[in-house]
Design goal:
Layout lengths: L1 E7 L2 H15 L4 E8 L11 H6 L6 E3 L8 H22 L3 E5 L3 H12 L4 E4 L10 H11 L2 E4 L2 H9 L7 E3 L3 H6 L7 H8 L8 E4 L10 H12 L7 E4 L7 H14 L4 E4 L4 H8 L4 E4 L3 H4 L7 E5 L12 E4 L3 H12 L1 H7 L11 H11 L18
Parallel strand pairs: 1-2, 1-4, 2-3, 4-5, 5-6, 6-7, 8-9, 8-11, 9-10, 11-12, 12-13
Helix pairs in contact: 1-15, 3-4, 4-5, 9-10, 9-13
């Protein structure tokens, strides 16, 4: 039995990993180990480790690492604490391979500790670009620390190879979040409204906005531009999801609380909805507004539009249902008007999701089951032929 240690530090990350973990858990040749860290263990972010346990997954180790500060200094210190905690946890669990996803600083700490401990690493969702965030640098660094790569598109596979990874270790499997849609029993509208304690109209918007971490203190001003646009729409209900543990995230969360307090009948906010509720909600909203990856990765599969604000997701491959705009009142206003138009509503019904590929999760687990880990740590840099 290969021991596969899955690390998760946020609600969104666990949403991508949930069914990968389940298939590892039920595999005849793999043993699941789970390390939980970051926002999962924070009361401020909803103590979402309980969602993992309610899904029947045993948490083997917990690594406390989040500082109370959301400044750049606080994030850096959190990474340091994480490296210390993961060093102990990985020594105790002694996995054959550690499986990580994406670009979060919590997972970066795990990758550092795993690399020094000579534990092979599998990386999901590498090769992508988010040029407005330091997550972009973290993701590419994690690629170089990893030994198996599971990418969401063929272009992202090529980029991982361009970073020097051997092609036979880089697999185009599709987006985990998209495959999850086919695995989850989604709620009916009545069940969802009961769970949310909120009425869903035909023009309800889901707003999820995060700081652009490579910009200096723009979170508040950019989010205020968005609120200034939204307040003009009297007949639209709005559901907000709060930010991750990013620099300046608390600024946005405070603004959400103040806005919802002023409009309790037409707005509601959530620290964490859980995967089933969140995906179910995408069935019934008119569109997603903000700068979250879910508006790009999952929303197109529900045939709804996305307003993508600013540079946080700049560089990502996007379906035609994603409307990019500048983080200004004028730019956001034009994008929201387009999103709400009947013409655009009709157009998005025919859009295909570039992240959709059949059997994503099953393919990842099958590769883990069959791959040999002998000498996998001694990587040979793959040079592109630039002679022509």
């Amino acid at each position: 039995m290969k021991k596969i240690c899955v690390v998760t530090g946020s609600r969104a990350e666990y949403g991508l990993l949930r069914w990968v973990m389940e298939d590892i858990r039920t595999s005849q040749s793999l043993e699941l180990q789970t390390i939980v860290t970051g926002m999962h263990l924070s009361p401020e972010f909803g103590l979402t480790y309980s969602e993992i346990e309610s899904d029947g997954i045993i948490i083997d180790r917990r690594v406390e690492m989040l500082m109370s500060s959301d400044t750049s200094v606080g994030v850096s210190k959190s990474i340091g604490l994480g490296v210390i905690g993961f060093a102990d946890a990985l020594q105790q669990l002694s996995p054959d391979l550690m499986l990580i996803v994406g670009d979060r600083f919590e997972t970066f700490a795990a990758a550092i500790a795993g690399s020094i401990a000579r534990i092979p690493i599998g990386h999901i969702h590498g090769g992508e670009l988010t040029e407005g965030n330091f997550d972009d640098m973290i993701r590419h660094a994690m690629t170089k620390m990893s030994h198996l790569h599971f990418t969401a598109t063929a272009d992202y596979r090529n980029r991982v190879i361009q970073l020097g990874e051997q092609p036979n270790r880089v697999f185009h499997v599709g987006g985990c979040g998209v495959d999850n849609i086919h695995r989850v029993a989604l709620l009916s509208k009545a069940e969802l409204e009961s769970s949310l304690e909120f009425n869903l109209t035909s023009s309800t918007l889901l707003v999820t906005f995060h700081p652009v971490t490579l910009e200096e203190r723009t979170a508040g001003s950019q989010f205020q531009c968005l609120l200034d646009v939204l307040v003009k729409y009297k007949n639209i209900n709005i559901i907000f999801t709060k930010t991750n543990a990013d620099s300046d995230g608390r600024v946005i969360n405070k603004m959400i609380d103040e806005y919802v307090a002023q409009k309790p009948k037409t707005t509601k906010s959530f620290t964490s909805m859980g995967q089933v509720v969140y995906l179910s909600l995408l069935q019934y909203v008119r569109g997603v507004v903000g700068n979250s990856s879910s508006g790009i990765l999952e929303a197109p599969s529900f045939k709804i539009g996305t307003v993508n604000i600013g540079d946080r997701q700049r560089g990502r491959i996007k379906a035609p249902s994603v409307i990019d705009c500048e983080p200004t009142r004028e730019g956001i206003q034009l994008a929201v008007e387009k999103l709400l138009s009947d013409e655009f509503l009709s157009f998005v019904k025919s859009v295909n999701n570039p992240y959709e590929k059949k059997g994503t999760i099953r393919n990842i687990v099958s590769i883990l089951e069959g791959v040999s880990l002998d000498d996998i740590q001694k990587k040979v840099f793959f040079d592109l032929d630039l002679s022509h």
